[in-house]
Write a structure and sequence with these properties.
six-stranded antiparallel beta barrel, six-stranded antiparallel β-barrel, 45% strand
Length: 292
């Protein structure tokens, strides 16, 4: 108040601006530090290779099995490991008929080792088994044979936060593009409603290139994993192809959750779902009931 009982509007405005600033500071998480971005986005990014192809993957789940032993899982694209899956018609001498037989080859996952936070100095290569795949979803789940403890696991965005994603949100895409050590590119969420081969995709302007497939797209503010880079826009002009690396399509998180549930791996994200041990028992029971 000032003389005469009149309200000083400048003072009132300053007070409200201060309150608004305080609310904003307490309502929004501070941006992640460089070190935090390394640990939540870069370090969980791995290179995935088969005998014939390769791409990227993301170390997303580490489940304690017993003291000192863990079940580790890596998410990637089906097309990255497709060459390691062989389905053929073979004669079954007991059933006296041709049956379809699926064989899965061992794949390899390379964890990169760093010094000075950012400098890759080598890789730790471990064998992995393909435990689930879906060609239509273009997703595959790998289980590492290495059962030792591993830090730096990526965090999949919770299901109840998927609906908060919007255009203009800053993102970072990370993968082993062209076989290089994992590297980040930044951009924005640029589309949320693309449909390719009857499946929903999101698009981002963080540049990706061949080899990024199977890697990760993260919210830059929180470091949460929101999708799998899978496709890049290509325009053909005569005999030339123009790759629009800033138009990268990624499989959104809701499809990842759907894939895991359909493949019997909901226990990876839902503590109330079947445990790992119970799931193994259920799998064995199903096999006993249907040996084919």
């Amino acid at each position: 108040m000032v003389e005469g009982g009149e309200v000083n509007l400048k003072n009132v405005a300053a007070i409200f601006m201060g309150i608004a600033l305080l609310v904003a500071m307490t309502s929004w998480a501070a941006p992640l530090s460089t070190g935090e971005l390394h640990r939540c986005c870069l370090y969980p990014t791995v290179r995935v290779t088969t005998a014939e192809a390769g791409g990227s993957g993301t170390f997303l789940w580490s489940i304690p099995v017993e003291p000192g032993r863990f079940a580790h899982y890596v998410l990637t694209n089906h097309h990255v490991i497709e060459s390691a899956i062989k389905i053929s018609e073979e004669w079954d001498s007991l059933k006296k008929k041709e049956i379809k037989v699926e064989r899965r080859q061992t794949v390899h996952v390379e964890f990169f080792q760093y010094r000075n936070l950012s400098e890759p100095v080598g890789t730790l290569k471990t064998a992995a088994d393909i435990v689930a795949w879906d060609k239509d979803e273009d997703l595959a789940l790998l289980k590492l044979r290495d059962e030792g403890q591993k830090p730096d696991v990526a965090k999949l965005i919770p299901q109840d936060r998927i609906g908060t994603l919007r255009l203009f949100q800053p993102i970072v895409a990370i993968g082993a593009g062209l076989g290089h050590a994992p590297f980040p590119t930044t951009g924005l969420i640029t589309s949320m409603v693309d449909e390719i081969d009857r499946k929903p995709y999101m698009m981002g302007s963080a540049q990706i290139i061949f080899g990024n497939s199977g890697g990760g797209v993260y919210l830059l503010e929180t470091g949460e994993f929101i999708g799998v880079p899978s496709r890049v826009a290509v325009s053909f002009r005569g005999f030339s192809a123009i790759v629009a690396t800033h138009m990268g399509f990624f499989i959104p998180a809701q499809r990842i959750y759907g894939f895991l549930e359909a493949q019997g791996h909901a226990f990876l994200y839902d503590p109330a779902a079947t445990s790992y041990e119970d799931w193994l028992k259920a799998k064995k029971a199903r096999k006993d009931l249907d040996p084919e």
